[in-house]
Amino acid sequence: MNERETWATRAGFILAAVGSAVGLGNIWQFPFKTAQFGGASFLIVYVIAALGIGLPAILAEFVIGRRSNLNTISAFEKLGHKNWRFVGALGLFTGFWILSYYSVVGGWVLRYIGGSLTGAYFGAPAKYFGQISAGMDALALHAVFMALVVVIVAAGIEDGIEKATKLMVPSIIVILGALAIFAFTLPGASEGYAYFLSPDFDALFANLGDIVPFAVGQAFFSLSLGMGAMITYASYIDGDQSLFGDGITIVFLNSFVGILAGLVVLPLLFAQGIDPNTSGAGAVFISVAGAFANIPGGQAIGLIFFLVVLIAALSSAISLLEVVVSWAIDNYDVTRPQMAILLGGVIFLLGVPSALDTAWLGWFDTLAYKFFLPVGVLGILIFVAWVYGAPALDEVMKGSGLGEGVGLTWLWLARTLVIVAVVATLVLGFQTLFLGESPAIIPPI
């Protein structure tokens, strides 16, 4: 077994965890999910869910990781609950599953960077996406993106992931901030701000049943919960730094980036008269690309935008590969570069169907977000809150400087409200997966 690495600095851990959370979901999914579910109404519920539900859940994953200093499977055995290793195994499998198609979308982003340089997608954005989203070109760029991820993870925790995310996360914030300032100058952008920031409380309460499950789901998904990433990253913490402080910082920065992306995307679309109420990866690429085609300096702005999306995609992808690499090097006498290359290759092969046909990508995505992730989060919460209990409370209080009442509040929130929220999300997902004329569980064969 190899000597276990640690983060060089506390900031390195925080930025790596933020990088894991800040990905395509924040820059693509969050603005369009907000538009789909009522603009500011969704935003309010999301912020409440991220703090009231996402924060307790991320602390639960931190407890498992730091208490054990092991990967997402072996952690449960070290904590004295060998029979719960299946929860960690599900998280590892989920990260493996998600990265296989996430890398394909990362390849699309690489293509759009090139398309911004040449203006290739300006004339017919929908046709351009159709041409590049599936086929041998998509497969080749899927390979390029995975190779970039492998190189970073192979370099290690301190020299690879920590150094990369220390550059990536501040870059994302700075570039999105600059783009938000640019979007503010566009005629008609004020309608986007009004839609995004001015809530309609009548609409909120009238549609609460639809908004809440999706806002809770977005909070979990955008925080990288249920895929082993936060357990794995917390396992590299060396010391008793405040998990409460780290968790709040990560949730705040993650939400801030999502909101900042909304301040770029929604004003941009409203300024061009484009309906933001769309869904799906293809619709997102087509809508934003179409907006760039009609604004001054669209090629340069498009290039900058897709560069920040690439950075966000890489920062999340490296955390997903690290989950499986961490497990391998904790349990076998192999080097990090060897396992990064081997497992990266296997993940690439799993992503081949998604690269050749977007219907497969949609199927992989649906199973991940509506089944694997919620089940994984639920298992972690039940274990930490109800099975592990008192040691979990002891771990979360270390270095916090807070009274025991704060810790007990976290524990009971995790035992009650957070579990109920995850179950509600699961029920909603099961309806899509197993009911109706065309259940989503059936693959597109």
TrEMBL record:
It is found in: Membrane. Pfam families: SNF. The chain crosses the membrane at residues 12-31, 43-65, 86-108, 128-155, 167-189, 211-236, 248-271, 277-295, 302-329, 341-364, 371-390, 410-435. PROSITE patterns: NA_NEUROTRAN_SYMP_3. GO terms for cellular component: membrane. It comes from the Archaea. Keywords: Membrane, Transmembrane, Transmembrane helix, Transport. Its main location: membrane. It is a multi-pass membrane protein. The keyword Transmembrane helix applies. The keyword Transmembrane helix applies. NCBIfam families: Na_transp. This is Neurotransmitter:Na+ symporter, NSS family. It comes from Haloferax larsenii.
